[in-house]
Amino acid sequence: MTLMFVTSWNPNGEYGRAWQQRLRDRDPGIDLRVYPDTMGAPEDIDACLVWAPPGGLMASLPNLKVVMSLGMGVDHIFRDAQYPAEVPVCRVVDDDLIERMSEWCVHSVLHYHRDGDKYDADQANCVWNPMPHMHATERRVGVMGLGAIGADTALKLRALNFDVAGWSRSPKDLPGIESFHGDDQMGAFLGRSDYVICLLPLTPETEDVLNARAFDAMPKGGVVFNAARGAHVVDGDLIAALGSGQLSYAKLDVFREEPLPEDHPFWRHPKIRVTPHNAGITNPDTAVEQILDNYHRARDGQPLNNVVDPARGY
Ligand code: NDP
Ligand code: OXD
Questions:
Q1: Ligand 1 centroid to 133 CA: how many Å?
Q2: Which of 135, 189, 210, 292 is the most exposed place for a label (fewest CB within 10 A)?
């Protein structure tokens, strides 16, 4: 049984080497190949651990039994039009990563909510200018996607006294969180959300979901936080909504093109804050066991964990 490590970034950089080391530490007998250098023959490969594999590569491996995402998202796998439909896809579901993600969301909301940018600028100019601020109970947060990350984020913001609702495909029952679901309830959800946090998976249904119509449905002066995928946001619509004052601020961790091109207007926009897709990074120390467990399950013909539904795309 052979596992191949495939990433769109340098697999032999620090993070890639950490993964290879953890896999070997925990399973000293593993036959671990690294694409493309030590791949060997395509028929050797039984399992792949991947981030954004090249199109057609998975289809060229005749004995492939499972593909495991290095992250919680799987859009980077399904975007391959030649992906072999019969090969199951598993994703990471790891508390460490969930907690890192909700930390980014809570930090981003609190920084905006407590006028972090204003006080940073005031300090830079030695200005003492205290301003009144709203209590968390006066701010309505809307979390798009109440899955593993969205639910954790919603509950943490609720614990900080924000008025929190969530939007998902199916109704949810989370303590203190108002649940909206489906396309029919999206307008009502957005209409009551001063701060919208996107934690949706990227699928054909959720692509471009943060568009002019969605921004117009939010209360004037609303704020958007996106830690999911760049293609949820229609970039031009976001810039227009910030320009008109319909939105007052956006914080983005993910982008249609990554790294964000140097000439992209988001970099220098006064109302946009950018982080480099590092809201959450899968920790090899905490996630390696579930990867090896699925690899061994595939070898033994056992049911796999955290299998994604290809029809839903998440
Ligand atoms: P889950 O699969 O656990 O949850 C997805 C949620 O989105 C579910 O509540 C689901 O509804 C809802 N949803 C899906 N499609 C729709 C739709 N069409 N309309 C309304 N709701 C919908 O996802 P995770 O919480 O694990 O992760 C979310 C995303 O976060 C990942 O897919 C990834 O893209 C991104 N991510 C980003 C990282 C970063 O560093 N920036 C790190 C990790 C993840 P239902 O529950 O009813 O099915
Ligand atoms: C993920 C990510 O999907 O890091 O886990 O974006």
A1: 32
A2: 135
Q: Domains plus CATH for the chain?
A: 2-94+282-300 (3.40.50.720), 95-274 (3.40.50.720)
Output the pLDDT for position 91: 98
Report how far residue 241's alpha carbon sits from residue 237's, in angstroms, rounded to the nearest whole number: 6
pLDDT at res. 261? 98
Contact criterion met (CB below 8 Å) for 66 and 88: yes
Q: What angle do the packed helices 284-300 and 95-113 form, to 10 degrees?
A: 140
The pLDDT, as a whole number, for residue 127 is 98
Tens digits of residue pLDDT in 190-237: 999 999 999 999 999 999 999 999 999 999 999 999 999 999 999 999
Rg (CA), the chain: 21
Is the shortest distance between the CB of 72 and ligand 2 below 6 Å? yes
Q: Is the pTM of this model over 0.85?
A: yes
Nearest to 251 by CA among 83, 145, 154, 113: 113
